[in-house]
Amino acid sequence: MSATGVDGRPGLADATRGRILFGGDYNPEQWPEETWHEDVRLMREAGVNSVTLGVFSWAKLEPRPGVREFGWLDRLMELVHENGIGVVLATPTSSPPPWMGRLHPDTLPRDEDGRTEWWGGRQHFSHSSATYRRYAAAITEDLAARYGSHPALTMWHINNEYCTYDWGDEAAGTFRRWLQDRYGTLDALNTAWGTAFWSQGYGDWQEILPPRHAHYLNNPTQVLDFKRYTSDMLLECYAAERDIVRRHSPGIPVTTNFMPLWAGQDAWTWARQEDVVSVDLYPDPRDPFGAQDGALVQDLTRSQARGPWMLMEQAAGPVNWRGVNHPKPRGLNRLWSLQAVARGADAVCYFQWRQSRQGAEKFHSGMVGHAGKQGRTYQEVRQLGAELARIGAEVTGRRSSAEVAVLHEWNAWWAGAQDGRPSREVDLPRVLRAWHRALWESHVTTDFAHPEHDLSGYRLVVVPQLYLLTDTAIDGLVAYVRGGGTLVCGFLTGIADEDDRVRPGGMDARLRELFGIRVLHEWWPLDPGEHAECEGFRGTLWSEEIEAGDAETHSRYKGGELDGLPAVLRRERAWYVSTLPEPDALRALLAGVAAEAGVRPVLDGLPARVEAVRRGDLLFVLNHGREPVTVAVPGTYRDLLGGRPVTDSLELGRYGVAVLAP
């Protein structure tokens, strides 16, 4: 999962070979074969050195059950190889052919209401279907046997954006087996699920179903386990195909692409099973915080990879799935691509190479748009390709270091996002983005970490919100603070154990002692647009009725039911924030705590909308604004992009970027 691989496995460095991989999904089956030669010529002009083939090619490769048509892929592999372009070869298993659903309806997933999800789109497969798994293994076996030693092959890409759920009968059977492995006995399951509530006690495993549509609320722990199970079933599908391709090409790294901050996969668990961690990233060009959203996903992916990672997909222009799909203004594609490199990407790729003329994504941009090679999109892609080639040897393999860790965990997200909670307005990604934004705008680089990771290397750990925490995680946080670390924790953290059972006192006693909370009396969620007035700031989304023990009250609530009660508590190096401060206040709070903990921003005095990131000893400076800026950069550097010396100050134009080497 690192650049150099782990446990003797290949890694991203085996694919990059000192270059930044640059290219994207190539779907030549959509075009006459004579177009392929033009495509390859344009790729070479644009500096493309990698293409992903076969992601949605199952019907082309296996038009009828057991029939193989590899001739077109043979010719294509040779063509790109002759032109010096490497191949990330995908297994096509994310989109089964129509014949599979017709002949084997058991391969089709069902939703919570029992309705079948039919073919005609994509991802129409049941992860639990033995038939689907058999066909997927067979096509993967034949692909790997044929191309596993092909000189063009640089990486395997398994499936695509694993994101399917299934509530059908076959899934019910595998869910029961998963539960038997987890709990062993029905008594243990009944205890974990709290089935004494609402007469839900189970006396036979066959009585257990996935959490299908019910008259009222489903059992929360049943829902939590179903999400855990789904992540595990999808991971089984990935691992089965991964093991096949590894057997045929042991020196070639294997990946699959995450979607950004998606709830369906426990990405910490998945990342350990990948040789290369990759992600698809599509910030909205009109979102004023699009760059921060990108930085968050990049930081998370780098942390999962524990080193360089792969940007598998981005858009060269507009996407097709928002209500209004805006293009990227001139220069923004370059800026966001280089932001990914700054935050650890050694591969910058797109969906897709040539924009489709038919199908559901014909209005999703490509590196070559409908305007062709004369279009602005392709011309900007050419510029970016040349720049990535210029800096690749000096960038690839370098690692970023951070003194701050943000904790995030999928089980806590799954448990905290269910119905029947104090507030539907509390959304973990929203809270996570707010806290990361506060640090990003303070020019503090952050890693992400699982709450059970070793945190001792960080000066500061922040917990925006972790509703569910295991005993191991809580003990780790306490030990981290006792060992000299500084911890800042947001509301609704440490409320439940791993079975979604509320801990005595409404928050784990170890955490209450850590933060100096004597009693947590009540949660007071806020309505949309409502604020809680506090000393020095206004809180949003949430507030709490807390009785402090031996803690210092940093800020109190003003007015209303909570007048005079603590809003922000501090006990030595442990801080507790019982509301979500408005952005300026949260930024000031976290920046102040970070400074006290000895964390310094990458650069001081940066203008608004300017980002500075260190990758190894390289300094990336990025202007996310439309106006030119002057940035103070004490010292003398060499700008790898501009090829000019820089001393003490730097001029950046609209969406400008500099990569400075000492």
3D architecture notes:
The protein is an alpha/beta fold. Helices cover 33% and strands 19% of the residues. The chain is globular and about 75 Å long. The longest helix is centred in the middle third of the chain and has 29 residues, at 220-248. The chain is built from 18 helices and 26 strands.
Number of strands: 26
Major sheet: 9 strands, parallel
Q: Can you give the mean pLDDT? A: 97
Specify the CATH architecture of the largest domain: Alpha-Beta Barrel
Distance between the termini: 29 Å
Gross morphology: globular
Percentage of residues assigned to helices: 25-40%
- Overall structural class, as computed from helix and strand content, comes to alpha/beta
Low-confidence stretches: none
Overall number of domains: 3
Question: The CATH topology of the largest domain, please?
Answer: TIM Barrel
CATH class of the largest domain: Alpha Beta
Q: How many H/I helical runs? A: 18
Task: Supply Rg.
Answer: 26 Å
How do the strands line up in the largest sheet? 5-4-3-2-1-9-8-7-6
Range of strand content: 15-25%
Which superfamily, in CATH terms, is the homologous superfamily of the largest domain?
Glycosidases
